[in-house]
Design a protein that fits this description.
21 strands
């Protein structure tokens, strides 16, 4: 069977491997090239320990503040607000208690697949050296948060996630570069991070080509509705295949619409600064609860990033946000290099209101499959999603219930 994958980010490349495993002929298509989008600027954490959606009951009262603080952990560009209103309405609906719990159920199911799928793929692809299992920390400054984090830890343990609650002195012992400003931390001993997201994505892409996949740089503007879908591009470009996988991240929405599915996909504009050659400051990823950013020790250097800006695909980067992340980090971590020595990045994470991706079949053509909308978790959930796509192509029962991820759930 010939399968075309639209998108050469980490989700598309992982899907290529899962389909090659089953003997399919795989064509990867991308308008830019491999790892052009957020796959190259990812924080590098296999964050299978994260099981809470962004939209939560407690989040509702914070929405007005998002409009007032353009440099906060979650901000909305005022000029983009009218276009965001339908998405925000669904975000508020997803934050209702019953909807929130449904989202957690779906997120837990997918996250439980994530790390085992990554370890298996890395081993098979010969890239296991990219994955480091030194655990991850989630540090907090306000002692009043202890009870909430202990409650979260109980939920995580129920989902099979190992977690230890650390006192301030234990945290400092593990990561001496952290300043003495923390009330404690959650420690996930089984968590993993990637030595370099761009290098790993490119290695996975190269090994897919070595296994027989082909790549074309092409912009797909439409897909026909025949039993053998035709991918259609400018100037008469066309490719006819047996199955199509749409894994184009934040650019997937028009293709889904052409297939009859109105998916409320928006882009979380993520920011980071990387410091090439700065290694050894921390041993493992550290997330900072109160400040909305993470710090990851990549082999290429230290990366500080995070936060969410809702502002569409067209507006230029606002690196005052990156500077704000860095300034916060200097109050929490000793030994950071000067901001001007860093390399700035902004990327478009494909985001859905309930923090769950779209994984399933198109309404108008069951031979067109979706694998997009992973938000912060594209790197984390890519290989698990790839396995689910392989299940759908093979017409077998998926490993988990895909109802939570249905493109028709909206």
């Amino acid at each position: 069977m010939k399968v075309a994958i639209v998108g050469a980010g980490i989700v598309g490349v992982a899907a290529a491997h899962a389909l090659l495993d089953e003997g399919h002929e795989v064509l990867i298509l991308d308008k830019e090239g491999p790892a052009f989008g957020p796959s190259r600027g990812n924080a590098g954490i296999i964050a299978h320990t994260d099981i809470l959606p962004i939209a939560s009951p407690g989040m509702l009262r914070k929405v007005p503040g998002f409009l007032l603080d353009p440099l906060g952990p979650l901000a909305i560009r005022l000029g983009y607000l009218p276009q965001m209103l339908p998405w925000l309405a669904r975000f508020l609906l997803a934050a209702r208690p019953a909807a929130y719990e449904r989202s957690i159920t779906g997120l837990v199911a997918l996250q439980q697949l994530a790390l085992p799928a990554w370890l298996a793929r890395a081993e098979r692809a010969g890239i296991a050296g990219f994955i480091h299992r030194r655990g991850a920390l989630y540090a907090y400054r306000n002692a009043r948060d202890t009870a909430d984090l202990e409650a979260l830890a109980r939920r995580q343990r129920a989902a099979g996630i190992a977690v230890d609650m650390l006192a301030p002195q234990e945290l400092r012992q593990m990561e001496p570069a952290l300043k003495d400003r923390f009330a404690g931390a959650s420690f996930h001993p089984d968590a993993a991070h990637i030595s370099d997201p761009l290098a790993l994505t490119m290695a996975l892409f190269d090994t897919a080509l070595a296994r027989g996949a082909t790549f074309e740089k092409a912009e797909v503007g439409n897909i026909s509705q025949g039993e053998r879908p035709a991918l259609i591009g400018p100037a008469g470009w066309q490719r006819v295949v047996d199955r199509v996988v749409i894994a184009a991240g934040a650019w997937s929405k028009p293709l889904a619409a052409a297939m009859g599915d109105s998916v409320p996909l928006e882009t979380e504009r993520g920011y980071n600064v990387s410091f090439p050659g700065v290694t050894g400051l921390t041993s493992r990823p550290v997330g900072f609860k109160d400040d909305g950013f993470v710090m990851t020790p990549l082999e290429s250097g230290l990366r500080i990033g995070g936060a969410v800006e809702l502002g569409g695909l067209e507006a230029p980067p606002n690196h005052a946000r990156t500077r704000a992340l860095y300034d916060k980090a200097t109050t929490l971590v000793d030994g950071l290099p000067a901001f001007d020595s860093g390399r700035l990045w902004m990327g478009f994470r494909p985001s859905l209101p309930d923090s769950l991706p779209v994984i399933g079949r198109a309404s108008r053509n069951r031979n067109v499959l979706y694998a997009f909308g992973h938000g912060h978790y594209g790197m984390t959930q890519s290989t698990a999603t790839a396995g689910l796509i392989a299940d759908l192509v093979a017409e077998r029962e998926p490993a988990i219930d895909l109802g939570h991820f249905s493109p028709q759930r909206f």
